[in-house]
Amino acid sequence: MNKNYYNIDEISQILDEQKHTIRFWETRIRKLKVLRTHSGHRLYNYENLLLLKKIKEIVDLQKLT
After folding, report:
1. pTM of this prediction?
2. Which of 1, 31, 55, 57 is the most buried (most CB within 10 A)?
3. Three-class DSSP category at 36
4. Contact 39, 1 (CB under 8 A)
5. pLDDT in tens, 1-53
6. From the CB of residue 14, how many other CB atoms can be counted at a distance below 10 Å?
């Protein structure tokens, strides 16, 4: 069962990636549209999670920085 939204801590654990790296990808990848709460917290939907998994795969396989 998929959740509607994931916070950055959950995304970080799922991807086994640092939160600052995920935030960096967010600034560089235009397709990655993240919902922000009134308090500024990031909320990622399932499509964001899939896109982040693909980004991580590309970065890991091709050793991109």
Report:
1. 0.86
2. 55
3. strand
4. no
5. 578 999 999 999 999 999 999 999 999 999 999 999 999 999 999 999 999 99
6. 14
| Sheet hosting strand 42-44, strand order edge to edge | 6-7, 42-44, 35-36
Q: What is the pLDDT of residue 62?
A: 84
CA distance 35 to 1: 21
Taken in order 15, 17, 22, 23, the sign of the CA dihedral is positive
| Residue 1, token pair as written in the block | 């069962």
pLDDT attached to residue 27: 93
Mention every residue, 6+ apart, whose C-beta is less than 8 A from residue 11: 17, 22, 44, 48, 49, 52
